[in-house]
């Protein structure tokens, strides 16, 4: 489970779509009280920051549409509560960029 802290446009198609799927998983755990991944570090990182998670989703959707993908899984904006920013980074942005570049998938080009 991974939601990058880089701009959505920096991700290749595979990582953008994968992150979108995982964001929905995190959202479901946090808004519906699902317990399966409730203690996963990525889920804990977004606890109390649903407004920021919602904003990340909207940036993913914008980028997906820009690339010609359709989107049919909106989030409920009324559930987008809490902090509107995510200051807790998994790794520094430079480390995240390097990690994606080394994968050779087209991210961060």
The largest sheet is: none
Global structural class: mainly alpha
Helix and strand run:
HHHH
How many domain units? 1
Mean pLDDT: 96
Distance linking N and C termini: 23 Å
Backbone shape: globular
Comma- or semicolon-separated keywords:
109 residues, mainly alpha, globular
Please provide a written account of the structure.
This protein is an all-alpha fold and 109 residues long. Helices cover 50% and strands 0% of the residues. The protein contains four helices and no strands. The protein has helices spanning 13-32, 41-46, 50-66, 93-103. The relative contact order is 0.22. The model has no long low-confidence stretch (mean pLDDT 96).
Quick structural overview:
The protein has 109 residues and is mainly alpha-helical. It contains 4 helices and no strands.
Chart the SSEs and their pairings:
Blueprint: H1 13-32, H2 41-46, H3 50-66, H4 93-103
């Amino acid at each position: 489970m991974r939601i990058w802290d880089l701009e959505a446009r920096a991700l290749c198609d595979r990582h953008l779509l994968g992150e979108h799927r995982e964001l929905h998983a995190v959202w479901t755990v946090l808004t519906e009280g699902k317990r399966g991944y409730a203690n996963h570090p990525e889920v804990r990182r977004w606890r109390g920051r649903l407004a920021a998670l919602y904003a990340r989703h909207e940036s993913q959707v914008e980028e997906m549409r820009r690339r010609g993908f359709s989107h049919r899984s909106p989030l409920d904006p009324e559930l987008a509560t809490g902090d509107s920013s995510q200051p807790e980074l998994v790794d520094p942005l430079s480390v995240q960029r390097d990690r994606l570049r080394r994968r050779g998938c087209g991210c961060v080009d």
